Amino acid sequence: MTYYSCFDQEGNIIARCQTKEDINVLKKMGRPIVEIKEMKNEESVVCSLTGSPSDYNEDY
Fold first, then answer.
1. Cα radius of gyration (the chain)
2. Are the C-beta atoms of 38 and 4 separated by less than 8 Å?
3. How far apart are CA 60 and CA 54, in angstroms?
4. I need a surface site. Which of 7, 11, 13, 17 has the fewest CB within 10 A?
5. 38 or 56, which is more confident
6. Is the pLDDT of residue 3 over 90?
7. Contact 5, 37 (CB under 8 A)
8. Shortest CA distance to 5 belongs to which of 32, 35, 30?
9. Could you please report the per-residue DSSP string of the chain?
10. Which residues of 23-47 are buried (b: 16+ CB within 10 A; e: fewer)?
11. What is each CA distance from 46 to 28, 40, 52, in whole angstroms?
């Protein structure tokens, strides 16, 4: 399973998403996503252990 980290123009992480569709929804909601990076396997395992990546997105 692939997870993505989304960053704003200052390089701060603003969301973690599981699919490109999730990223598109956040963009439509007005989130200032400037950069998207695929998470490494060792990073993404944290998402799968702690719940849905959308849990990180308080307004999604």
1. 11
2. yes
3. 7
4. 11
5. 38
6. no
7. yes
8. 35
9. ---EEEE-TTS-EEEEESSHHHHHHHHHTT----EEEEPPHHHHHHHHHHS-GGGG-TT-
10. beebeeeebebeeeeebeeeebeeb
11. 26, 11, 10
Per-residue pLDDT of 4-49, as tens digits, reads 999 999 999 888 888 888 889 989 999 999 999 998 877 766 555 4
Q: Report the amino acid identity of residue 2.
A: T
Distance CA 27, CA 39 (A): 19
Contacts of 7 (CB under 8 A, 6+ apart): 13, 14, 33, 34, 35, 36, 37
